[in-house]
Amino acid sequence: MDALIDETSSGLGRVVTCVAPVNIAVVKYWGKTNEDLIIPLNDSISLTLSTEHLRARTTIKTIPQSNDITFELNGVTEKLTKRLSRAIQLCREEAVRQNTATQEVVSAGLTIISDNNFPTAAGLASSAAGFACLVCALQHLYGIQGDVSAIVRQGSGSACRSVFGGFVRWAKGHREDGNDSIARQLFPASHWPELRVLIVVVSDHKKETSSTKGMQTTVETSDLLKFRTEVVVPKRCEDMERAIEKRDFPSFAELTMRDSNQFHATCLDTYPPIFYLNSTSQEILMLCHDYNQKKGAATVAYSFDAGANAFLFTLNKSVPEICGLLQARFGVTDFKGDPVSDFCLHEEHGSSISGSKTKDVVKYVIVTKVGEGAHLVENDTSS
Amino acid sequence: MDALIDETSSGLGRVVTCVAPVNIAVVKYWGKTNEDLIIPLNDSISLTLSTEHLRARTTIKTIPQSNDITFELNGVTEKLTKRLSRAIQLCREEAVRQNTATQEVVSAGLTIISDNNFPTAAGLASSAAGFACLVCALQHLYGIQGDVSAIVRQGSGSACRSVFGGFVRWAKGHREDGNDSIARQLFPASHWPELRVLIVVVSDHKKETSSTKGMQTTVETSDLLKFRTEVVVPKRCEDMERAIEKRDFPSFAELTMRDSNQFHATCLDTYPPIFYLNSTSQEILMLCHDYNQKKGAATVAYSFDAGANAFLFTLNKSVPEICGLLQARFGVTDFKGDPVSDFCLHEEHGSSISGSKTKDVVKYVIVTKVGEGAHLVENDTSS
Question: Where is the Mvd1 C-terminal domain (chains A, B) (predicted)?
Answer without folding.
Answer: 197-375
